[in-house]
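Below is how a single chain appears once it has passed through the pipeline. First comes the sequence as given, then the structure the pipeline wrote out for it. We keep one example in the README because the format questions we get most often are answered faster by looking than by reading.
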Amino acid sequence: MSLIVDIRADSKFPIDRERLRGALRTAWEAYGISEETHVSVAVVGSRKMAELNQRYLNKKGPTDVLSFAQQGTEREGFGFVVPPGSPLELGDIVMCYPLIIDQAVTLNVLVDERIVERALHGMKHLMGDEEN
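Resulting structure:
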């Protein structure tokens, strides 16, 4: 089976899509999921991220990454019918490109390295891992 990674990013937010997909697939394989799975990644600006952060977490200002789970790795108990054979819908990872650039500069790492690290952090939340 495979992990389907849909990436939505405006051209003003250049990212290495293949590197990001590869990192998320490696993480997915490490979780040992045996069914086809779908995850969505969106790269947005500060204004959009601040709007999402306010709407869903009631926090002002942008944050670097948000995760919105749709289905857990166990399909039961979600209150809706999932057609047989359809991919497991993990959810959405939303990242704020301007904040990630700032973090990359502060940490002295490549922007794409920081993008991957924050996406993996988002993936952990979709998989049910809590903040430590």
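The mean pLDDT is 89.

See the next section for the split statistics.
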